[in-house]
Amino acid sequence: MERRTIGAGALAVGAVGLGCMPMSWAYSGSRQRGEESLRTVHRALDLGSTLLDTADMYGPFTNELLLGRVLKERRADAFVSTKVGLLVGEQHIVANGRPGYVKRACDASLRRLQTDVIDLYQLHRADPEVPVEETWGAMAELVRAGKVRALGLCAVGARGGRRSGAGLHDGTLRQLQRVQQVFPVAAVEAELSVWSPEALRALLPWCEARGVGLLAAMPLGNGFLTGTLTPGEGFEPDDLRARHPRFTAEMMAANQPIVAGLRRIARRHGEHVTPAQVALAWVLAQGRHVIALPGAKQERWAMENAAAVDLRLTEEDLAEMARLPAAQGSWD
To answer: Which is nearest to 103 in space by CA: 151, 141, 54?
Structure first.
């Protein structure tokens, strides 16, 4: 698989990684099967999808434990990214960026992952009660201690700290400017897809100017861009899409022209090319610092996603995708 670099340290990873969250958290619980997830991780590594993206809050903790079973056997094949800064309670999530907590959380993640070092340690969310420089400084100490190789920052969510008239990523850019003064940022993880292209406006240019990797989260639009979801089908209560305004039956129906456009382009490239692969190829075409992180919990999806690296969209394809209607329904 094509490899791309993250950060000034030139850490190399497969252009398509594996988002591991769906295996343990946020999506339909009845479809989460440990042994199947293990096979999926192994297959992803076999195909060159070396970046495994997880977080201590996924489960919580169970996703790291699952990956630890793979890493115990195949640590040299994987690039491990995990996150710190969010605590999951009963019906709520809170941020904790206290330096002492960050250091304890890192040690706990290392134990669960069964590894001596985390390749990329990301701040999931900044704690509003703690200056982000203090949290980042504690993370930098972990690099100096040899427990972490590089640091990353997750973009502030669409509902987090957005001011009227402000750009979606203004808050993230302010955080990046602050933490960059403490220790270099190697990667930024942010949503980027055909139906959520906002990161292209200011966030990706910031990353490109500094050699920072952009980890494109949700590149398949939480599954919508695969064309496998049916409007009105509904979701299990624990599935995040059950509360997402783009996944009401009305909005899913309204956004079908986006999927139809991806299907048209897929057909031009061959009968076995899928809308999901077109969506991933679009993400990869946005720049050499972009790494796609589609989530998957089944081998067949990991295989399909990895194959998207070989799909080369034409100028005609990209122009047609630029003309697709904007997604309807949002957090704002």
So the answer is: 141
The tokens for 317 are: 């394809």
In this structure, what are the phi and psi dihedrals at residue 102, rounded to the nearest 5 degrees? -55, -45
Q: How far apart are CA 184 and CA 8, in angstroms?
A: 8
Max Cα distance, the chain (Å): 55
For the question of whether the overall pTM of this predicted structure is more than 0.85, the answer is: yes
Rounded CA separation 246/248 (Å): 6
Given 27, 58, 101, 121, which residue is catalytic?
A: 58
Provide the H-helix boundaries in 231-293: 249-254, 256-269, 275-284
Contact 253, 221 (CB under 8 A): no
Structure tokens at 253: 């129906």
Q: Tens digit of pLDDT for each residue in 56-100?
A: 999 999 999 999 999 999 999 999 999 999 998 877 899 999 999
Total number of residues shown for the chain: 332
d(CA 293, CA 305): 9
Cα within 13 Å of Cα(217), Cβ side: 17
Active site residue 27: no
